[in-house]
Amino acid sequence: SARIALLEVGVRIVPAPYSGPSAYDFPTQRRMSSLEVLKGPASVVVGPRTTGGALNMISTPIPDDFSANVDLRVGEHSSYDVHANIGDAGERVSWLLETVQGRSDGFMHVDSPLDGDTGFDIEDYVGKLQIDSAPNANVYQSLRFKLGYTDQTSEQTYLGITDEDFAADPLMRYAATEGDVFVSEHEQYQVDYVVDPGNNWRATVTAYRNDFKRNWYKLQSVNGTGLNNVLTDPETYAQELSWLKGTTSPDDAITKRANYRSYYSPGVQAEVQWDFGFGE
Asked: What is the structure's pLDDT at 164?
């Protein structure tokens, strides 16, 4: 997302479109009904970061009639993925409730007595409410509200392993990565006003706000030495490598950092569509 614009139903969804477009956040794909790819001049209108185009993700729409759906998938490593929604469309009031729940222990393993997980937990909730004007109104008007909340915990690390250890066990992680974890929360608020007189034009005004915060606890150095130096020259840094693998180290020899960041992205956008033709 550093070179493309990411949108959800036409609204910029990244935490900081101008300053931090690749801030480790991406909408849950399980609740998307379709994808729209914009390239070239078509992507310019959506804002900055469109060098590689734009990707507009269309979330699950409110159904035309009452319906409920549940999709459950299970797999190895204690993995499961649940996508459920329920909604209804009335004469003037329509609504949708949706959630995605996913987790996994991960396919890698930490080489430590704790044998910690290397997987993830994701909780995603979305609510939509639509209030329309009366069916006999001269001009169709609609107010549409959308609320979303996503919580993610991923037991991930930046640290790799030496070539020798990779050849022996490519799915192994060193003991010192036990506490490396990425946590994030994303809150989404959106209100749309739609007016359509039923002739050749219609307009939509959208007010939105995205709040995103994340923290990544991860290894930074060992005994004051950069991690890349230890892994690329394991003979020189044999002692430091042994500490990464779990042998008892001196106090404060292993340094971790927390990359906490918080973003908010509010905005108002308007769109007017006009249908016209030439000749016949």
From this structure: 93
Query: So what's the pLDDT on residue 270?
Result: 94
pTM: 0.89
- Interval 151-165: pLDDT, tens: 999 999 989 999 999
Name residues whose C-beta falls within 8 Å of residue 93's C-beta, 6 or more positions apart in sequence: 129, 130, 131, 132
> Are 205 and 197 within 8 A, CB to CB?
no
| 52-75 per-residue burial string, b: 16 or more CB within 10 A, e: under 16 | ebbbbbebbebbeeeeeeeeeeee
Q: Please state the three-class secondary structure of the chain as a single string.
A: CCCCEEEECCEECCCECCCECCCCCCCCHHHEEEEEEECCHHHHCCCCCCCCCEEEEEECCCCCCCEEEEEEEEECCCEEEEEEEEEEECCCEEEEEEEEEEEECCCCEEECCCCCCCCEEEEEEEEEEEEECCCCCCCEEEEEEEEEEEEEEECCCCCCCCHHHHHHCCCEEEHHHCCCEEEEEEEEEEEEEEEECCCCEEEEEEEEEEEEEEEEEEEEEECCEEHHHHHHCCCCCHHHHHHHHCCCCCCCCEEEEECCEEEEEEEEEEEEEECCCCCC
Would you state the pLDDT for residue 115?
66
* C-alpha span between 57 and 79 (Å, rounded): 25
Q: pLDDT tier at 169 (50, 70, 90 boundaries)?
A: very high
